[in-house]
Design brief:
Blueprint lengths: L1 H37 L2 E7 L17 H21 L7 E8 L6 H9 L2 E4 L5 H25 L7 H7 L1 H4 L6 E7 L12 E2 L2 E2 L4 H6 L7 H7 L3 E2 L9 E8 L8 H15 L5 E5 L3 H12 L4
């Protein structure tokens, strides 16, 4: 009799055990999804408006640099709105903004950039607002690039100073997932911030790479032993994630791309930034998935 009871109950117990296990897994998945959805995003875009976007100096027959930038910004904006639409209206508390450093002299460009500082929360969230963000970013960033190219006054890119003096105050907020997207060719140069300390500097240009002898096959050995790189910024930016887009190395040096990425890798790591990616310039259609996966945290 006992054997018969065991024969009946054992399968039932096994079914119950695996059923509970499956429910537990589903609960874990749901919790993970809810956690991702309810997370508040603080997305910043830093645009390098140096002469890299000049149609005269850097023409590109396949697709102009500024058009690529606009495509990348479109992907960032779409990822942001996709995130917003995945949340309940009362959960929304997210931000997206755009920066330059230094600020352009053109007052119209600065005025437009202020309009691109968007805060969406439960007090103003609506389907109309969410549906308007992509068009707003697309049209207004296009105006910024067109004005900059028309002015033809490129004052350089002071990304180093932006990290030193502004990123902590302007791009990082407690309680948010802070993401900084940088659109640049990987070089840095600004007349007002040219500092050198041994082989470290606040700027990086093709002539400097050549001058430092980092244009030969043993560049990496020399880079490490000579302590080359950007001057270290004494900051803990561990609560910031960075995606660098548009690396466009000088074609005269076959090692230029690796050298640029070595500078950036070392610098971002020194600031304790744990999650960062550095991507070459490519067509927006090829970069769309990469950008959205980074922002929406997809592996």
């Amino acid at each position: 009799m006992k054997k018969n009871i065991l024969r009946i109950t054992m399968p039932l117990l096994l079914i119950l055990f695996f059923s509970c296990k499956e429910e537990s897994k589903n609960e874990e998945k749901e919790t993970a999804v809810k956690s991702s959805v309810s997370e508040n995003y603080n997305i910043s875009i830093l645009i390098d408006l140096s002469d890299r976007i000049s149609l005269k100096k850097n023409p590109n027959p396949t697709m102009e640099i500024y058009q690529r930038d606009l495509g990348y910004i479109k992907s960032v904006s779409e990822a942001f709105t996709q995130h917003l639409k995945s949340k309940r209206m009362r959960q929304i508390d997210d931000k997206m903004q755009l920066f330059f450093n230094p600020e352009p002299e053109n007052a119209a460009i600065n005025s437009i950039s202020k309009q691109l500082r968007i805060t969406v929360d439960k007090n103003n969230a609506s389907k109309e607002l969410l549906n308007s963000i992509n068009e707003t970013y697309s049209s207004k960033t296009a105006s910024i690039y067109e004005s900059a190219i028309k002015d033809d006054k490129y004052i350089g890119s002071d990304i180093w100073n932006f990290f030193d003096n502004k990123v902590k105050d302007q791009c990082i907020e407690k309680g948010f997932r802070n993401v900084l997207i940088i659109l640049t060719d990987g070089y840095m140069f600004y007349d007002g911030t040219q500092i050198k300390e041994g082989n470290l500097s606040t700027y990086l240009t093709p002539p400097l790479i050549k001058q430092n002898g980092l244009n030969t096959n043993d560049w990496e050995k020399k880079f490490d032993s000579g302590n080359f790189g950007f001057i270290k910024i004494d900051a803990d930016l561990s609560n910031l994630e960075v995606l660098v887009l548009g690396i466009n190395p000088n074609k005269n040096n076959p090692f230029e791309e690796k050298v640029i990425k070595a500078y950036w890798n070392k610098w971002l790591s020194e600031m304790r930034i744990k999650h960062f990616e550095i991507k070459n310039a490519d067509l927006p259609s090829n970069m769309d998935k990469i950008i959205k996966d980074f922002i929406l945290q997809k592996d």
